[in-house]
Specification:
By secondary structure, the protein is α+β, with helices and mostly antiparallel strands. The protein has 5 helices and 6 strands, in the order ααβββαβαββα. It has one domain: Trna Endonuclease, Chain: A, domain 1, CATH 3.40.1350.90. The protein has helices at 5-12, 16-30, 58-63, 79-92, 112-124; strands at 32-37, 44-46, 49-54, 73-78, 96-99, 108-110. The chain is globular and about 35 Å long. It starts with a helix and ends with a helix.
Length: 127
């Protein structure tokens, strides 16, 4: 599903921390996380650590499928799988999460355990 241009414009005005907060709310509500995939998941390097970028919606991920990620396509990850497999695995592999980069900004970098904690806190509000 493609986000309306006005929505994209408004969200891109947010700073990286605000986009991270939006990401947490959105994925908790819709129980889906988006990444970029092409024979493997998109990655980048931050402070000499491998980072994997994630987005709250398919359209935002697709907008970043250019430059170093040209040829990648948006792929969904169910939230339960993200929480039970992805984040613990990333922690074990010493990787970090890159939350909601845009075509012009790097996004918010956060350790998997911190992201897991933030998502669990948000989920508690839904119970």
């Amino acid at each position: 599903m493609k986000a309306p241009p006005k929505k994209i414009e408004n969200i891109y005005r947010l700073d990286s921390q605000e986009r991270c907060d939006y990401f947490i709310r959105k994925i908790t509500d819709f129980e889906m996380v988006w990444g970029l995939f092409n024979e493997g998941w998109a990655t980048t390097i931050s402070d000499q650590k491998m980072a994997i970028p994630f987005w709250p919606e398919e359209s935002f991920a697709t907008l970043c499928a250019n430059d170093e990620w040209a040829g990648f396509t948006a792929k969904a990850i169910e939230l339960n799988e993200f929480l039970s497999h992805w984040l613990p695995g990333m922690q074990s592999d010493s990787r970090i999460c890159q939350i909601f980069p845009t075509p012009s900004e790097h996004g918010f970098f956060i350790p998997p355990t911190a992201l897991l904690h933030a998502i669990k806190e948000e989920r508690e509000q839904y119970e």
